[in-house]
Amino acid sequence: MSAKEYSNTLLQVYCLSLAHEATQSKRMKIPVATTALLAASTNAFQHSRAGRVTTRSFSPSTRLNILAGTESASERVARVMKTRPEENSSMDALVKENFPGAISNKELETKVAKALERLGITPANTLLATSLCCDELARNLEDDFNTVYGHNFNLGGLSGFPFAGNTGFGAMSAHVPDDGYCLLIHGPHVGITKDGIIGKVERSGIALVDSCCGSAIAASNYLKSITDGGMKINPKLQQFSDFQQGAVQELILPFGKRLNEAKDRMKELPYALYDSQDILVRDIINTGKGGIKKGLVLLSGIQINTGPETLDYFHPLRFEFYDENGKVTQDLLPQLK
After folding, report:
1. Per-residue pLDDT, 209
2. For helices 265-287 and 165-175, what crossing angle results, to 10°?
3. pLDDT, tens only, 18-48
4. Which DSSP string do the residues of 116-141 spell out, in sequence order?
């Protein structure tokens, strides 16, 4: 028996004995939660048929999902798009009228995959990281890229702000394959209905045409109440149970005049949020640039969510390649035009 196996066996026996004492002895008053933890610790070990102590293997769903294989990113995108709705010409025109520069997710993903392939960035050597809103509609784009590049490291929270911060970015960087790359996608989102109402969207199974993005609109309303002079002081603004929304409301404060003067507040809102997030994300990258391995690609912009029967869209505002020193060496945005 090796030293490691011996120590594991001792730990198993020790955990079992403590769990037994905790349940049998009236003098040893160990909390129920501690007893459960000790019992769980013993379950972390199991005997193989040969009688050796081994650690319990991880479920495949918890493993880092860097996708290998022979299928290229472009081929995977094509396979994903076969399951998506066909392009709707009226919705396409409506989105592009309100958000000039927007392209469908199908077009975005196809062009991104081809651009990355030209740089030698593939599903086998890339970790996907995202900073997108918690809203399930933000998962549409994320899920597509998951299918192409594997499970994402989540850096985002409400409205798409990078709440994982420097610590999250550092942890993510450590998970990038050796001599590999990170594809970081971030940005806020906004809904548009089939009737052209911005800030609303149809959701599957829900009759009510709902707000999108709810967090962004709540922050906008908070800001408007300040600029209109009707805001009352809220001493619980930073309470832990809603600290992300409190942060979103504070991070949007510099854009009060801009939003008040906008012709369409709901149309301007995601761009104001983006400008705030853009500063934060690039600062986080700069702070953590020492963790970049072979390179990092930053794709950022506005997600535009439509109803369940039509494609979603994306207005790309940045598509840049950072080298191993954390310097932007290529502007890839023209490749998405």
Report:
1. 86
2. 60
3. 444 444 444 444 444 444 443 444 444 344 3
4. HHHTT--TTSEEEEEE--SSGGGHHH
**Cα(123)–Cα(312) distance, rounded to whole angstroms?**
23
Of residues 49 and 103, the one with the higher pLDDT is 103
Question: 246: which 2 tokens?
Answer: 């409190």
DSSP string, 22-64: HHH-SS----HHHHHHHHHHHHTEEE-TTS-EEEPPPPGGGS-
Distance CA(231)–CA(224), nearest Å, equals 8
- Contact (Cβ atoms closer than 8 angstroms) between residue 276 and residue 252: yes
Place of tokens 């149309």: 267
Q: In degrees rounded to 5, what are phi and psi of residue 23?
A: -95, -25
User: What SS3 state is found at 224?
Assistant: helix
CB-CB contact of 213 with 191 (8 Å):
yes
Output Rg (C-alpha) for the chain, integer angstroms. Answer: 24
Percentage of residues in the chain having pLDDT higher than 90:
66
pLDDT digits (tens, 9 = 90+) for 115-165: 999 999 999 999 999 999 999 999 999 999 999 999 999 999 999 999 999
